[in-house]
Design goal:
Blueprint lengths: L7 E5 L4 E6 L3 E7 L6 E6 L10 H7 L4 E2 L4 E3 L5 E8 L4 E2 L7 H8 L4 H4 L7 H10 L12 E3 L3 E3 L5 E3 L8 E7 L3 E6 L16 E7 L14 H17 L4
Antiparallel strand pairs: 1-14, 2-13, 3-12, 3-14, 4-9, 4-13, 5-8, 6-7, 7-12, 10-11
C-alpha cells in the first residue's frame, strides 16, 4: 500500500476520543506513531445499535487470550465486524477494559481542562461515553472494549501484567471491515499502564479501500469458526437488500 491509496487520514491525540463509521470493504489502518500508545475501541452496528462488539466470544471461538493478525473481531450476533489482516505490533489486549476517572486521578493525579486545556488527563471510560452520546447511546450500551497496541500477560496465578514498550514507534494494525460499523475510539492510557507520568500517546488513522478477499484468507480461513462467522455475514448482507 502507498500513501496515494489513503482516502482519509488524521491523528487522534493522546488521551482524546473520536468516532466514525466504516463501510464494508474498507480498511482502517491504525499507527502507533510514537510507540507505547493504547487505542481503546468499541464497535456497533450502525443500523441496529443493540448489536455490538463481543470480546468474550471473539476470544473463545478463536481459542486465544490476545488478538493479532489472522483474528476476527465478532459482534454479539455471531457476525464478523472486522478482520486483522496486517499487524506489526503483534499483541492486542482484549480483557482489561478501560480506565475510569478515579483510576487516572489515583495514578497520575487530577489535571482538568481549567488548568491544562487540551493537555487535561482524560480517561477511557468517559471518552467512550462522550462519543456514545453523539449516537444516542449511553452507559447501558458500553461493552468490553479492545485495547490495541497494549500487551498484557498473565502469570501462573492468573495475575495480569502490562508489558511496557511492547508496541514500537510506527507499529500498525490493519482492520478490514466485513460489515458496516460504528467505530468508537479512545487514546486514553491502558488501565494497567504503570508509567510514572500520564502517558498521552497519539494514534494516526487512515481509511483505505481493502483489497478483495482471496482464499485461503488469513482471517476467514484461519479457523472453521471464522468461516461460520463469515457465512453469518453473507446471510445478513442478503437480508439488508439495498443497504451495504
Amino acid at each position: 500500500m502507498t500513501n496515494t491509496d489513503i482516502l482519509y487520514q488524521d491523528t487522534l491525540p493522546g488521551g482524546c476520543h473520536w468516532s466514525l463509521q466504516m463501510r464494508r470493504g474498507q480498511l482502517l489502518r491504525l499507527v502507533d506513531t510514537d510507540g507505547g500508545a493504547n487505542l481503546g475501541m468499541l464497535l456497533y452496528n450502525p443500523y441496529a445499535l443493540l448489536e455490538r462488539i463481543n470480546l468474550p466470544d471473539t476470544l473463545k471461538c478463536q481459542h486465544t487470550f490476545r488478538l493479532g493478525k489472522g483474528h476476527c473481531i465478532y459482534s454479539d450476533m455471531g457476525r464478523v465486524f472486522c478482520s486483522i489482516v496486517e499487524d506489526t505490533a503483534g499483541w492486542h489486549d482484549a480483557v482489561c477494559g478501560a480506565a475510569s476517572r478515579e483510576l487516572v486521578e489515583r495514578r497520575w493525579g487530577r489535571l482538568g481542562y481549567q488548568e491544562a486545556r487540551n493537555d487535561m488527563r482524560r480517561n477511557g471510560l468517559d471518552g467512550f461515553l462522550v462519543e456514545l452520546a453523539k449516537h444516542g447511546l449511553g452507559r447501558k450500551d458500553l461493552a468490553a472494549n479492545l485495547n490495541l497496541f497494549s500487551k498484557v500477560v498473565a502469570d501462573g496465578s492468573g495475575a495480569l501484567r502490562y508489558v511496557e514498550g511492547a508496541s514500537r514507534p510506527g507499529s500498525f494494525v490493519d482492520l478490514r471491515f466485513e460489515m458496516d460499523a460504528l467505530v468508537v475510539m479512545s487514546a486514553a492510557p491502558h488501565p494497567l499502564n504503570p508509567a510514572r507520568e500520564y502517558p498521552a500517546k497519539p494514534v494516526r488513522y487512515e481509511i483505505r479501500e481493502a483489497p478483495p478477499m482471496v482464499h485461503p484468507d488469513v482471517c476467514c480461513d484461519s479457523r472453521p469458526e471464522n468461516q461460520r462467522g463469515f457465512a453469518n455475514n453473507r446471510l445478513y448482507q442478503l437480508s439488508l437488500g439495498g443497504v451495504r
